[in-house]
Amino acid sequence: MSAARARGAWPAPEALVRAQREARARAERVRLVVHQARGRTGASLGRGAGDSVEYEDHRSFVPGDDPRHVDWNAYARSGQWVAKVFRAEVTPAVDLAFDASASMAAWPGKAACALGLFYLALEGARRVAASVRVHVLVGPALETPPLDAVDAGRWLPATPGDDAPPELGRVPWRPGSLRIWVSDLLFVGAPSGHLAPLGRAAGRAAVLVPHAVEESAPEWQGNLTLVDPESGAQRIQRVSPRLLERYHEAYQQHFAALRDAGRRLGIPVARVAAEGDLLAALRTEALPAGVFEPCR
Amino acid sequence: MPVTFAEPLGLFALLGVPAVILIHLLRQHPPQALATTLFLLQAVAPEDMRGRRVEWPRRSLLLLLQLLVVLALAWVLAQPRWAQGARRLPVVVVVDESASMSAFQEAAQAELTALLESLAQGVTLDVTLLSSHPSREALGRGEGPRAAAGISAARPDLGAHDAGPALEVARQRAGQDGVVVYLTDHPDPRPGALVLSVGRPTENVGFTGLAFEGEGWAATLQNHGAQDALRRWRLEAGGAQIDAGEVKVAPGEVRVLRGAFPPGAERARLVLDADAFTLDDTLDMVRPRPKTLRVAVSRDAAGLSWLTRLLARAPHVVVVGEGEAADLMVDAGKDGVGAEALGQPWLRFALDPRLEARQPAVGVTVEQDALTEDLPWSGLVFRRPPRLEKLPPGARTLVWKGDVPLVVAGPGQDLLVRIDPRGSNAARSVAVLLMLVRYLDQVRARVPREEAYNAELREPLTVAAVEGAGDVEVRGEGGVARYSQDRLQLLAAPARPGAFEVWQGEARLMVGAARFADVREAALVGAGPARPAPQVVAAVREVGQADDPLRGAWMLAALGLMLGTFWLSRGEA
Fold first, then answer.
1. Which of A188, A223, A246 sits opposite B30 (nearest CB)?
2. Residue B452 in 3-state DSSP?
3. What are phi and psi of B388, to 5 degrees?
């Protein structure tokens, strides 16, 4: 196993452009759910009341309300000043954060899955004319590449960073933005502490978690030299069936804790298997969690 | 088809199998695997579950090829041989039946069985067991290694003898493809035979001789070993212990035990504490009682003073007076043979009446006879006797002067001496005196009278058997040996130590005791082991076996496997 392979490597820019092209095709079938996002006035329905033609509710007219929203028919019937409330039309803000640590590119399938999720979210945001920002996190490092660079496939670091967990607290989340965090969540530490920054500044968030079968059901047996792709650390380990069983339990508990934390924070955590078709993999957790929805 | 190996040492190459596995165990590195969840594994794997240094190799093509190389090389080096059909191998075993083998009888069967088993790989053995003495009957026949049990029929009681004739007979019986095995106890290379020596240097102290001095006995005792020995002995007679003692004997030393014959006893036995060689640990004896020859001397012969002195000094001869029964009549006077029929043997000296007529003459011619053999006649000076006109039937001239008989043996046991003692030096002639003593012994031996005699094992015996009275039996502790009249010259003491008696019909001719006295067989320090070399055994087995027809293919396979191993090793490097 070469050193570069051991540390994980992202595909070349040309491959990233191809992946983005494939994501555009997939975006015809599923779309990113952004309708409750807040943002500047724009073309998308916002979470609050606004000036769109989309009726939402009635309420008592109070001084300061736009007189055009008085429901005259209701006034004629009841003599009460009733105002119509319409949904606001906003330009949603979507902040895409991508975990570019080496573990995300440990296996080609997992890297392709991670990039597929990222590009699908990007294309979904663009289809609703959202204001999109991309943040790339490698450990404590944070980069916010311009979208031109993203479209050119030149937004990922050439070499993986260290094995420190990404610091989401350093990301300049925009208020009210939809935060999509693409990460395998393979970090040590309290799950809630890790996910909490996603919900700051009245934002709505979702976590897309690519995972490979090499992680969920590894075929480890006997003596192995296990290599951490992020730190390069090696560990000679004799893996017995009993140890493998305990590992499976730990793996399940790790993500169960993350789901619980996400549930408490209102942040859906959707795991997506790297094996097989990506759209099919989305149906397992991402669609039920409301991160994506099928296009009608 | 059974297979054997011409070079079994080649199978030691199989030691390469564990060696190769060990090398793989020590050299192998655990395979690498990416683990993005190493922190999870570290949380559940305590330190003491870290990997072992050595683990059974998994699916290694290189290991498989190297093991095949080792197996192929071992197969080629061991040189397999394939037996062609159901081959039978004649094996003739010549069993040394000398007395010294009695000390190694048990080891002999085990060793012979082992040798036959090594020969029997891929073949069926037709085993014949022969005695080392060609006069003895075959000990048995059988098939396969089990035939070695037949040596229990061997009787190791012979003295030192040459096994050459028996080996020659064995070679003829074995044929060109057969095998001859010489089973003995002293390493003794024999051309054309596999020598299997089962002996080992063994200490032995035993009796070697017996003499009588008046009423006392003197037994010689020798230490044939290489170490000092302290042995206890005892004298038994009539079932009771008469005397006992200890004797210390240095290596090679001969000691003499003396004692008086137990009063009133006719037999006695000296016994030593038993050792590995038991034949010489007992010494049976009888009170010596030789036969006496009763001799009557005529008045004319009594005038020959030298003759009366000779008769008085001759052993076991008694001169009887007139009228008493005699076994032999001695006379002097009339010349001639066969004219007198006295009913008993006679010895006559012919006196020449022409006392002053002739000068002494010298020079005689002697016939081959037990009486005259090897006697020095050249110093005899005598007067030439007159011619004898006619010899009676059965008479035979033993000594001649020209064509004149000087000594004539008549029919029966008569002897005519025609040398006049008065006109010759016969009284001082060693030849004449010894001839007369021999004659007296001959006559005495044929006297039908019982005697008591101490003999060595298988010592030829002379008894005065009566013609027409039936066979003669030697009754010993080991059984009865029967001799017909025409085989009496083979009469001998028993082959096993102990008391014996010689009978003819109802007449007991001899009471005796047989003792072991062959010091060559008793000396066991020279005994030693010797086994046929493995390559010799293998060469014997190979007769009639074919080389492995695929040997070339195996070598090519080994070469190919080695190249494959080299290629794989290079790839790994």
1. A223
2. strand
3. -100, 125
In chain A, residues with a C-beta closer than 8 Å to the C-beta of B46 are none
Which chain A residue lies closest to B58 (C-alpha atoms)? A222
User: How far apart, in Å, are the Cα atoms of B2 and each of B85, B120, B262, B286, B296?
Assistant: 9, 11, 69, 63, 84
A66, A104 in Cβ contact below 8 A?
A: no
Of A8, A186, A237, Cβ closest to residue B45: A237
pLDDT per residue over A204-216, tens digit each? 899 999 999 999 9
Chain B residues closer than 8 Å to A227 by CB: 32-35
Q: Tell me the three state secondary structure of residue A197.
A: helix
Measured between alpha carbons, how far is B188 from B194 in angstroms, rounded to an integer? Answer: 10
A23 and A166, same structural domain? yes
Please, what sign has the CA dihedral across residues A248, A252, A253, A254?
positive
- The alpha carbon of residue B144 is apart from the nearest alpha carbon of chain A, in Å, by 53
Say whether both A205 and A228 belong to one domain: yes
C-alpha dist (Å) from residue B346 to B273, B293, B314, B317, B340: 52, 13, 17, 15, 9
Per-residue model confidence as pLDDT tens digits over A219-276: 888 778 888 888 888 888 888 888 899 999 999 999 999 999 999 989 999 999 999 9
A215 in the same domain as A116: yes
Question: DSSP H helical segments within B446-544, as ranges?
Answer: 519-522, 534-542
Q: Given this model, what pLDDT does residue A2 score?
A: 42
* Selected residues 21-40 of chain B with any CB under 8 Å from a CB in chain A: 29-40
Query: What are the two backbone dihedrals, phi and then psi, of residue B544, each rounded to the nearest 5 degrees?
Result: 90, 5
Q: Does residue A21 share a domain with residue A34? A: yes
The pLDDT value given to residue A53: 57
Q: Looking at the structure, do residues A80 and A156 belong to the same domain, yes or no?
A: no
Q: Which residue would you say has higher pLDDT here, B412 or B151? A: B151
Residue of B nearest to A186 (CA): B37
Do A175 and A209 lie in one domain? The reply is: yes
A269: in domain: yes
Name the closest residue on chain A to residue B54, using Cα atoms. A223
Q: How many domains does chain A have?
A: 2
Interface test with B, best of A1, A211, A226 (most B CBs within 10 A): A226
Domain range holding A69?
52-89
User: Does some domain include residue A276?
Assistant: yes
Assess whether A72 and A23 both reside in one domain. no
From the centroid of its chain, how far is CA A134? 11
Q: Is the domain of A248 the same as that of A170?
A: yes
ipTM of model over 0.90 = no
Which chain B residues are closer than 8 Å to A1 by Cβ?
32, 34
Q: Say whether pLDDT at B109 is over 50.
A: yes
How many interface pairs between A and B have CB atoms less than 8 angstroms apart? 95
Phi/psi at A176 (nearest 5 deg)?
75, 5
> Angle formed by the axes of helices B305-313 and B430-445, to 10°?
50
Report CB contact under 8 Å: B35, A107: no
Q: Which of A224, A240, A247 lies nearest to residue B31, judging by beta carbons?
A: A224
